[in-house]
TrEMBL record:
<feature type="domain" description="Reverse transcriptase zinc-binding">
    <location>
        <begin position="1"/>
        <end position="79"/>
    </location>
</feature>
<dbReference type="InterPro" id="IPR026960">
    <property type="entry name" value="RVT-Znf"/>
</dbReference>
<dbReference type="Pfam" id="PF13966">
    <property type="entry name" value="zf-RVT"/>
</dbReference>
<protein>
    <submittedName>
        <fullName>Zf-RVT domain-containing protein</fullName>
    </submittedName>
</protein>
Amino acid sequence: WQGIHTVSSAVAWHSLVWHPKGIPKHAFCFWLTLRGAHRTRDKLVAMGVTHHTSCLFNCGEPETLDHLFFHCPFSSRVWLEVLALCNLVRPILPSADEVDWMIIHSPGTMFHHSLRKLAMAATIFHLWIERNNRCFSNRFLPHRELVQRVRQDVEGKLAAGNNAQRCDHHHNLCVNWGIPLLDIQEY
């Protein structure tokens, strides 16, 4: 095994994607995104699969990974609302900078760090699912429904055994996300 096994260098985003609280299908989709592996329309045109590059969220721009996450007006609206649920009020950054910001500001396993990691992965997952539903099933959800699905997934994961502390910041996050306050720890 050692003879054929290639050792790859660690990536900065490893702990952002693969962490104890992660939701596997969200983590996998996030991993594909960070590896640039999603087949967006710009890639499909280059492969000769389609002739249309326009974004499936009907903004008129070409569909690329950077556009989908989060420069498209539809996806940026979803992401801004998710950031607000995380008590983060800031402008949206270019995709690589969004990931870098999250790596720097959510390095550990504290409650608010885990919540941010889950929120980012869930947002990317639900945007990708919505994109595919629009492409293949002709089903369209409003941005509020995607935010609600992100909220449900994060709340569902953190409701059972969260490590929130008794402080205003964690209390506000629990209220925003609908996480029960019963298990909040003293700090």
